[in-house]
Design brief:
Layout lengths: L15 H28 L4 H9 L18 H14 L1 H20 L2 H13 L4 E4 L15 E5 L2 E12 L6 E7 L8 E7 L5 E3 L13 E12 L3 E2 L5 H37 L1 E2 L2 E2 L4 H29 L5 H26 L10 H11 L6 H13 L5
Parallel strand pairs: 1-4
Antiparallel strand pairs: 2-3, 3-7, 4-5, 5-8, 6-7, 9-10
Helix pairs in contact: 1-3, 3-4, 3-6, 3-7, 4-5, 4-6, 6-7, 6-8, 6-9, 7-8, 8-9, 8-10
């Protein structure tokens, strides 16, 4: 039996424009991203040229207003684009998700003047963004952040360190949450900080088990002066902005997770249908057939879950609970499916000659970023049973 080539995902898309968009993304993924993914990940190469191409083709601003350089695409379409990109290379899919997250505050809470001035370059002008919420001592407890912004006349002076910043050191702008008032969530304000501002610097990237091509680094703000015109929203509104952004960002992580899982399934099916043992393909053995069936079912369930949440968002309905469910389920699915893919390939799955081991290493981080899966369970439980009693 010959190797079975992976078939494109059969997607339910709302318009002909969306179908054309997915075709464009698949073409870019096959020509520009997937062929270099393994080599560049192994070398720790960040593909800035790919993000420049995606910006030029309008793929860095898909869910935002075309008036400012976006593409007016619903979230259900944008997320399926992320899935396709992540299946080709997670560094790219996650990078687009992070850029979209970094642009969210200004696109949603910025003034008209701020949006006119900054969004066109952010969405289609070649710029790349990063989102700065976490700190060395505040991850899940984000409301305890210590980076401080002090008002001096018409400016703010920002001092502190952010941690675990995707695109740290390579981004062109940072959306920064800093303390401007009292302790707790009500004392936090959002700022748009250019990466070339005096006093902004990045530490050496973290040495990670996966996604080596995507730099994750601490970013230092040493008395960085930014004008009040770069404050996003009202003073004290920053934490609410951050949480709102994360609801949408978690859907991006869910879509990326399903992309990685789909790539792992495709690899497993191709190997199982081509690998002969005892005179026949190993895909003929019921143990493996059931494993592949379970993998495919989990992926389809995850895709349906993130799309259901996206459609709620597109309809203007509450979706925070469903976003947390999607992030939880899809990333756990990615971990399970990629681990099973390594098992299907046997010894070969444990070698770098095949991509299965890379998928497994990459899937792990998706259970951690933008709120660990333990935090997602807390969010879901609060929607079901109310806040915890103290």
């Amino acid at each position: 039996m010959p190797d079975r080539a992976p078939q494109p995902v059969d997607r339910q898309l709302p318009t002909d424009e969306a179908r054309d968009l997915i075709s464009l993304v698949r073409d870019i993924a096959q020509r520009e991203i997937a062929p270099k993914a393994a080599e560049e990940e192994d070398a720790g190469h960040f593909p800035r040229e790919v993000f420049t191409l995606l910006s030029r083709t309008g793929l860095l601003g898909l869910p935002y207003d075309s008036e400012y350089g976006g593409a007016d695409q619903p979230y259900e379409v944008y997320l399926q684009v992320l899935e396709e990109l992540a299946a080709a290379r997670l560094t790219v899919g996650l990078g687009v998700s992070v850029h979209t997250l970094a642009s969210y505050a200004l696109a949603t809470y910025g003034s008209k003047e701020q949006q006119v001035e900054h969004l066109p370059a952010m969405l289609g002008g070649g710029l790349l963004g990063a989102y700065c919420l976490s700190e060395p001592s505040s991850g899940s407890d984000a409301a305890s952040l210590r980076t401080r912004a002090v008002r001096e006349g018409d400016d703010w002076v920002i001092t502190g360190t952010k941690a675990w910043i995707t695109h740290g050191g390579v981004a062109d702008f940072y959306t920064v949450m800093a303390r401007t008032g009292e302790e707790g969530p009500r004392g936090i304000t959002a700022f748009l900080v250019p990466a070339d501002a005096e006093g902004v610097s990045a530490a050496a990237p973290e040495k990670k088990m996966g996604m080596k091509g995507s730099p994750t680094a601490q970013v230092h703000f040493d008395g960085v002066r930014v004008p009040d015109a770069r404050r996003i929203g009202d003073e004290g509104q920053g934490f609410a902005i951050a949480l709102s952004a994360l609801d949408s960002g978690r859907l991006g992580i869910a879509a990326c997770a399903i992309g990685v899982a789909q790539a792992a399934l495709d690899e497993a099916v191709g190997y199982a249908t081509g690998r002969l043992q005892f005179g026949r393909p190993i895909a003929d053995f019921q143990g493996l057939r059931f494993m592949l069936a379970d993998m495919a079912t989990q992926i389809e369930a995850g895709r349906a879950l993130y799309l259901a949440a996206a459609r709620l968002r597109d309809a203007g309905r509450p979706f925070a609970k469903q976003a947390a469910m999607a992030k939880l389920h899809c990333t756990d699915t990615a971990m399970k499916v990629t681990t099973d893919a390594v098992q299907v390939l046997g010894g070969y799955g444990y070698t770098a000659d095949f991509p299965a081991e890379r998928y497994m290493r990459e899937a792990k981080v998706l259970q951690i970023v933008e709120g660990t899966n333990q935090i997602q369970r807390m969010v879901i439980a609060r929607h079901l049973a109310g806040p915890e009693t103290r």
